[in-house]
Design brief:
Belongs to the bacterial solute-binding protein 3 family. It comes from Hydrogenophaga electricum. The protein contains eleven helices and 15 strands. It is α/β, with parallel strands linked by helices and about 300 residues long. A five-stranded mixed β-sheet has the order 11-10-12-9-13, with helices on both faces. A three-stranded parallel β-sheet has the order 5-1-6.
């Protein structure tokens, strides 16, 4: 004879609720009630997040975000989920997510300690480092080259902070100029208004590939930084973060993310149909063996 305790159903229900992502988080509840998820994107962070010739947001990070949005839709049991887009800049991207204007930022944002005070991040989708973009005929090949006098970097970025630190620590005789966005910085190098553009090397390769004459520019120098790039999320919804982290791990372990990567780094991409020819680097390949959102920066 078995005795059925009245506590068993309650305990079972509690366990089931604990095993599922909580639907009561503020961000998830807003997505559920509005039936819309907003993805923040950039205008010139090639190939992560940028505008194609038709003005549509495209890129590697955006393709990943679309997969993450599908996972949110499935977990919430929504028949449809509208994906809206919000263009942001390096200066306002963190504020856009922190203030709820977007639920994910799909670009080339570095996950670091100071930013984690305002927002959350998922597992990195790329690991890179800052180098220099110069004209193809420039003799400059390092940050301390004697002919390097003026360097531009994009406002509110980690490469800009690293550049300032290098100048201060090494007492380099450099003038640092801030650009509003990557496009402006590249144009300054092309016009001779700056000798070099300091930014994540993968972005520099992408920006150069998108110019009218890609061979007119080159990427040089050693890494000034190590940058784990990740999708940015609101800080106040652990349930949303769990869904996103779980889906990122699925994409990595299944190998699906490699197909997305190949599309944007190894095949022809807009606007010129030129491939970047950048296979997965060893830093990212090693990191994806044990994917985590915890980074030592």
């Amino acid at each position: 004879m078995s005795i059925r305790s009245p506590l068993v159903p309650a305990l079972l229900a509690a366990w089931l609720l604990g095993a599922l992502p909580a639907h009561g988080g503020p961000v998830l509840e807003r997505i559920r009630s509005e039936g819309t998820i907003t993805l923040a994107h950039r205008n010139a962070s090639v190939p992560f997040s940028y505008l194609d010739p038709q003005g549509q947001p495209v890129g590697y990070a955006l393709d990943i975000c679309k997969r993450l949005a599908q996972a949110v839709q499935q977990k919430l049991g929504l028949k449809t989920l509208t994906v809206a887009y919000l263009q942001v800049t390096p200066a306002n991207r963190i504020e856009a997510v922190a203030q709820g204007q977007a639920q994910m930022e799909c670009g080339s944002t570095t996950n670091n300690a100071s930013r984690r005070e305002q927002v959350a991040f998922t597992i990195p989708h790329y690991i890179t480092g800052a180098r220099l973009l110069v004209k193809a005929d420039s003799p400059v090949d390092r940050i301390d080259h004697p002919q390097l006098k003026k360097v531009v970097s994009t406002r509110s970025t980690t490469p800009l902070a690293a550049l300032r630190q290098a100048v201060r620590v090494r007492a380099l005789p450099l003038t640092i100029v801030e650009a509003d966005d990557h496009e402006q910085a590249v144009a300054m190098v092309e016009k001779g208004q700056a000798d070099a553009f300091a930014m994540d090397d993968v972005l520099l390769y992408g920006l150069a590939a998108g110019r009218t004459d890609p061979k007119a520019l080159k990427v040089v120098g050693q890494f000034l930084t190590t940058e784990p790039l990740a999708i940015m999320l609101p800080k106040d919804d652990e349930a949303l973060k769990k869904i996103v982290d779980d889906e990122m791990r699925r994409l990595i372990y299944s190998g699906e993310i490699l197909g997305i990567y190949s599309t944007w780094f190894e095949k022809p991409i807009p606007p010129n149909g030129s491939p970047l020819n950048l296979p997965v680097n060893y830093l990212l390949r090693d990191f994806w063996k044990y994917p985590t959102d915890k980074v030592p920066f």
